[in-house]
Amino acid sequence: MGTLLEEIHSQNALLPDLPKGPLCIYRAKSSFNWKELLLFLDGEDMIIFKKRIFSAFENDPLFAHHPGEELPIEKYRELNFLRCKRLFEYDFLNIQEMIKNPLKIFMLINCLGMYDWSLSAKYFLNTYVFASTIQNSGSQRHMHFIQKTLNMEIFGCFALTEVSHGSNTKAIRTTAQYDPTTQEFIINSPDFEASKFWIGNMGKNATHAVVYAQLYTPGGQCHGLHSFVVQIRDPKTLLPMPGIMVGDIGKKLGQNGLDNGFTMFHNVRIPRENLLNRTGDVTPEGVYNTSFKDVRQRFGASLGSLSTGRVCIIGMSVVNLKLALSIAIRFSATRRQFGPSDDDEIPVLEYQMQQWRLIPYLAAAYALDHFSKTLFENLIELQIGLLQNDKSIRQAELGREIHALASAGKPLASWTAQQGAQECREACGGHGYLAMNHLGDIRNDNDPNCYVFNGSNRSRIIFKICSILIRVTVCVCMLYIFAGGYFSGEQAGKVIKNAILDLCAKLKDDAVALVDVIAPPDFILNSPIGRANGELYKNLWTTVLQGKKVLERASWWAEFSTYKPTIGSLKSKL
Ligand SMILES: CCCCCCC/C=C/C(=O)SCCNC(=O)CCNC(=O)[C@H](O)C(C)(C)COP(=O)(O)OP(=O)(O)OC[C@H]1O[C@@H](n2cnc3c(N)ncnc32)[C@H](O)[C@@H]1OP(=O)(O)O
Ligand SMILES: Cc1cc2nc3c(=O)[nH]c(=O)nc-3n(C[C@H](O)[C@H](O)[C@H](O)COP(=O)(O)OP(=O)(O)OC[C@H]3O[C@@H](n4cnc5c(N)ncnc54)[C@H](O)[C@@H]3O)c2cc1C
Predict the structure, then answer these.
(1) CA 162–ligand 2 middle distance (angstroms)
(2) What is the value of pTM for the model shown?
(3) How close is the Cα of 201 to the center of ligand 2, in Å?
(4) Is the pLDDT of residue 4 over 50?
(5) Which of this chain's residues are annotated to bind FAD (predicted)?
(6) Nearest CA to ligand 1 atom 4
(7) Beta 260-265 vs 222-231: how paired, if at all?
(8) Which range marks the domain in which residue 226 is found?
(9) Exposed/middle/buried for 527, CB within 10 Å: 0-12, 13-18, 19+?
(10) Residue 301's pLDDT is what?
């Protein structure tokens, strides 16, 4: 530990001072040092890790933003793939670093997502969801798929959902019929409704898929849902394999850099060994063996990898809430509207209504951030147990508890982020509705978090029970407890409302510093009204003027100036 001066100097190198400007008024009023809080929450190693990613992007032309430019879907899919390929070249997180600090996986997903969720999803569906499902559901005979994934020889996707079924996985209709004469499984979609659909990476370049199908042995007996590795394209040409009809489902409401696709299987033959055999296996003669006595437990184990996605989505939702709040709080601290006199307007953050709208979500962001990280660490503990083939009661209970907490935490986090992003959009008024300020993208990109992984949020009674557990578990901020609407009743209501208003008023002078802790660099936040210098109008005006043809005369000017309409010429004569 060096001298205090050396300590501060090293802090400044790690966390340089934020730019001067209108936000300094609030920063000066803050009751704490944002750098100390960030060091406390993330630690030096994680801050350096994040900086490495963000500065690589900011200095790489492939990741440049193009304000005011709407990329055609095909171009965006290509650019997203090229950026994903560049991530392999950066190799931000190798296996050794992952083992040393698994939380960096969580941080990498979220840093990529702060830049673009299409990129984060593409990269992680391949290197994490596809590979870790093989790792957790397969055995030694499947490890070659993982190595090939990590050096991009093959590219993976996770194919559970079908056109006609998503939440109800027991009703999945793709079949895997074992043929002992050739020791192969025959993968088949009985009809187009059973086609795999919505599958990230499948639309353009995935060569292999983890496919969930009902396993049938020669006697026609169904052993339920199992997962298989199926090659869908030739890695050398990206042309479909025989019996495979594969394509892109088209434009979504967001995340359009991600190629979600569909596949219909026409009696596609795969080697027996491609069955991911942790929950059950088939002998060369076609006899089914399993270590699971209880069918429900075996079913649950086959879906264990879904908890990984849900836990990640909790973190992704928290990131979106943080991004939206970074923009809205900084805007609110610099946007002046009305005041004690005409020429003395005050920041809208001073109004009780603006505090009520935003500060409870700031508390939620901190509370859910803590919850998401601890749950991810529990997930890692579960996955280590899986790798060590731990059959203990604790391991089984940990799996069920994470399934419950993840299934309840995901709706809680994704809905909080969805409602918070909308509140932030509205709190920024018209400028919040300007696409360049990024609040629309944040809201649209967060939207699927409310639906993917465990169907929709309106899943089951488990949600209500566990959401109460969740609120108790994550309620680290008094404000979050109150604002969460956890208490009810008239008297309690009045006490709570006054407590919220009182806490908001106390927190408003810390709001900008609390956002400085969670906000990414300006390049990543990518919002003129959310920049760290708080020069709201200069940043907005500069970005508007950077737009293409922004001051040019409309190309169709003659349709107004020269060719006037003949009024009523198309009016019906009847
Ligand atoms: C990482 C960054 C990029 C992310 C990008 C996002 C890309 C999106 C990808 C996807 O969307 S992938 C597809 C996601 N699909 C789903 O999540 C399907 C949702 N449905 C289900 O999970 C299940 O169908 C269900 C709704 C949980 C099952 O309901 P059902 O009523 O049919 O059975 P249950 O009685 O609930 O369960 C039986 C038994 O199994 C246990 N169990 C179920 N799921 C799990 C699990 N994931 N982990 C552990 N255990 C599980 C359940 O607890 C029951 O056991 P008991 O409690 O009876 O012992
Ligand atoms: C951006 C995006 C990426 C995706 N990526 C993948 C992927 O890579 N791999 C993959 O396999 N899938 C993927 N999916 C599919 C996703 O997992 C499914 O959309 C999700 O599981 C929900 O299933 P569904 O769409 O069939 O909706 P359904 O299950 O049909 O539900 C539709 C609606 O019915 C109601 N409902 C359903 N069940 C119940 C119930 N029990 N009680 C009350 N109401 C109910 C709910 O309102 C629900 O929203 C992706 C989806 C999106 C949007």
Answers:
(1) 10
(2) 0.93
(3) 17
(4) yes
(5) 161, 200
(6) 121
(7) unpaired
(8) 156-294
(9) buried
(10) 82
321 CB under 6 A from ligand 2?
A: no
- Cβ contact 206:156 at 8 Å: yes
Q: Which of 299, 446, 451 to mutate to test the pocket of ligand 1 (most atoms within 8 A of CB)?
A: 299
pLDDT at 514 over 80: yes
Q: Are residues 444 and 377 in the same domain?
A: yes
Q: Is residue 561 part of a domain?
A: no
Q: Can you give the CATH number for the domain in which 286 is found?
A: 2.40.110.10
Q: Measured from the CB, is residue 167 less than 6 Å from ligand 2?
A: yes
200 is in an annotated binding site: yes
Do 309 and 282 fall into the same domain?
no
Kindly state the DSSP code that residue 19 receives in the 8-state scheme. Answer: P
Query: For residue 392, what is the domain's CATH number?
Result: 1.20.140.10
Measured from the Cα of 212, ligand 2's closest atom is 11
pLDDT at 1 over 60: no
- Per-residue confidence (pLDDT) for residue 467, from 0 to 100: 54
Q: How far is the CA of 453 from the centre of ligand 1 (A)?
A: 8
Does residue 475 surpass a pLDDT of 50?
no
Whether the predicted pLDDT of 478 surpasses 60: no
- Is 268 in contact with 244 (CB distance < 8 Å)? yes
Indicate if 271 and 209 belong to the same structural domain: yes
- Find the largest Cα–Cα distance for the chain: 93
- How many structural domains are present in the chain? 2
Boundary of a domain, candidates 294, 323, 354: 294
Clarify whether residues 249 and 165 are in a common domain: yes
Tokens found for residue 495: 């006490």
CB–CB of 115/521 below 8 Å? Answer: no
Give the Cα separation of 341 and 388 in Å (integer). 69
The reply, when asked if residue 420 is annotated as ligand binding, is: no
Ligand 1 atom nearest residue 404's Cα: 53
The answer, yes or no, to whether residue 237 has pLDDT greater than 80, is: yes
The answer to whether ipTM exceeds 0.95 is: yes
Same domain, 453 and 304: yes
- Report whether 149 contacts 127 (CB < 8 A): yes
Q: Where is the domain boundary, 294, 313, 348?
A: 294
How far, in Å, CA of 157 to CA of 199, rounded? Answer: 7
The answer to whether position 239 is within a domain reads yes
